[in-house]
Protein: Baseplate protein J-like domain-containing protein
Amino acid sequence: MKSSKQKIFLDQQVDITTIAKHLSRVPEKEIIFNFPRGARFASSLDNFRALKKRADSLGKKVLIESIDERALEMASSTGFDTLNPIFQTDPKTVRDIIPKTTSKPEGFRTLPVRLSSRTSSSVSSESQEKASFWRKKASPAPLPTNRLPSFLSDDAVTDSESSAPVVSKKPSKPLLFPKNADSGFGIPSKKTGRFRGGKFAMSFFLLGGLIFLGVGVWVLVAVLPKATVKLVFKEYLMPFQYQLRVDTGVSTSSIQEGALVLPGELLKASKNLQMSFPANGTDKVEVKAKGRLTIYNAFSSEAQALVERTRFETSDGRVFRLIEGVTVPGAKIVDGKIEPSTLEVSVQADQAGVEYNIPAVPKFTIPGFKGTPRFEGFYGVSKEPMTGGFVGVQAVATDEDVVAAKKSLRETLLSSLKGELGILMKENYDVLEGSTAFDVVKEEVEQPAPLEKTFKLYMEARFRQFVFDRTSLEDAITKDAIRELDAGFLLAVKKISVQYFDPLLDFSKEQLQVRAEGEIAFRADINVGDLKKEFFGKDAESAKKIIFQLPGLERANLSLKPFWVGRFPKNEKKVEIEIE
Structure:
């Protein structure tokens, strides 16, 4: 039985376009993509998200296989099943170090916002000095320990559990090497019958014990110690409202005539498709055979016009007519000789019926030129048969058949076009309701051929989607909001929420008008890397003093593990700082 899965081995230079083609072409519903270590595709999480959207749109299940753990982690985080072919495992090593919360921190409150006319670069030098702690190393004066705030009291330092040392009794079994052994590895001497090598063996075991003790001390001092600092800062909330204009004709964000202008992008895709559908009706029909023939001008270097329905006749009297008027180009004269010019045209039988379904014909004459020199100079040749002639009862597509077929084909094209644009979408793109358009450009219905019971529907469509970079919008809002907020120290965005109202899209101008409303929350801007360095080697009391100086701090928790270490480790990986 043929396998329902398909494994595809990829090279290091594979890109999203190549993988998307594999998805479309492979008939199996389950596909395994094997990525080599260091594949360029696995350098971006956006690539896996785009691949996931494409696979979902095609209804295919994709498994990512690789020995590259980083690639497997990224694939797993975007919803793919993953597999390491060596260890046969699905790594789940990514985890959050900040616990989620569904409610605001205890004591949370919205601080009043003081408006200022200063620009974003007008933070005072005094404020910068206050915030210099996380921008450059500060040397604060020591504070009395009895003046620390309550949330940094001794109770805030949590110690890990400890266990009392285990004391074991001497074993009651006899020693392996007697005290009077003098040489060797405990083998009895042939001469005396006494054990030899006792001193050497005792030295060996003593050395092993010292090594074990040293490893234990190293584990206690270098491996086990760990410090965790949890910091919760005050939030400074600011509401905003903008009239937003997104325009593909601009490259940078700006404020023009009271509106926030952002660069936008109009994504486009087009596709055509022909499918067959059942024809449920019947009718007595008379169908004329059709085909193609080539007209030759071997008469003159002048062009010759032929009107619609011009007759072309076979040697046995069957007549075919031009479907539309044409002009045959003039022949070429080379060395005094005529080189005929040609023109390929469509013709239709003069009468309906199967008798006009004829094979290729070497020469058609034009009866209209009979009796003139042009009769021999102009003629036609068919290289393929004339087909389709029929008289009788035939299956036909009803109006209901055509309506249902158009609906089905539209849905198929729309799904396919959305999948194509999904590959172009980026995670930071926003697509608003009403900012997409699907148009059918062309459609043709072809009734069933004689003795067939299906008809064909051809449709050509395009899909347009207006998008903009949400990051650009948030950056513009942040710059505008921070000008009005004077907290006395440097701020960072904690979260931002935006809602859109009344979108109005003009595809001809490639512009989108919409109202954007929401709020932005700031907190103190802390450089975690510099703060970690300040903690290295500090004891709990010194660390509390450092934390006490952080601006905008609401509460904190400090934990040193194991408790007997008493100081922060000097290894950056052993110090964790969680900020809410």
